[in-house]
């Protein structure tokens, strides 16, 4: 199995989850993960998503999402949405692209314009059963590994751990394109992250928190949840998008905004910032 999309057809075909079109927008209940101000186009460089000023907001984890689309693969036998991981070997997801935060100088938090929490691109790989996510986050000059459970879905994972680590792995020149690869082994219950062909992180016992030495990179953590691992998932669902993560760092008291408070002003969540995501190629394959 090998899926390759470089958008050379000039089309970005979006449909409903489980439908016939190759992509669908993230949706949970009435919340649609597509900012109404998003400008989506196909250029010679691939798929381009530009949102000059974010307008989509919400409470809690919903507020993270400004634009997310997923690959609409369906397992014929079960109807499950996602790409089946082989019993042996690995399921590999790769995105080549770049992101450009916009308007982040207007932030009221006195943080760097390149702080990923203000606006970032994302290559996303998650599972709809265990809600374990293995992602890349990237700005125009930095890349981060994200390893989480229950961050984007907002769904409790049956008593398992609930957390998210965001680990810086690279800095690079502004505006440069990079290749983000995430590999998942169902047999070993492991994941690895590679940037431009070089492995930058790996972990086993998916669903379990990392060691204490990684606590400094905890962006989210619910201490009331467990620490257990889980059965390796059969499928992964892969996508990409634009995010803000203004409450990241909450366990250490370093979140910029408490998104769970209903009285948090909208102007603290969206303050004129936006983002641009350009993807020249997406590939999914087994090996």
| Count of folded domains | 1
Structural classification: mainly beta
Number of strands: 20
User: Which band does the percent of strand residues land in?
Assistant: 35-45%
Helix content: under 10%
- Within the CATH hierarchy, at the fold level, what is the topology? Jelly Rolls
Low-confidence stretches: 151-159
Largest sheet: 10 strands, mixed
List keywords for this structure.
287 residues; mainly beta; Jelly Rolls; eight-stranded antiparallel β-sheet; 1 helix; globular
Overview of this structure, please?
The structure is a single chain. With 287 residues, the protein is mainly beta. It has a single domain, classed as Jelly Rolls (Sandwich), CATH 2.60.120.200. Helix content is 1%, strand content 43%. The chain has one helix and 20 strands. Strand 15 and strand 16 (190-195) form a beta hairpin. The longest helix has 4 residues, at 266-269. The chain is globular, with a radius of gyration of 18 Å. The relative contact order is 0.25. Residues 151-159 have low confidence and may be disordered.
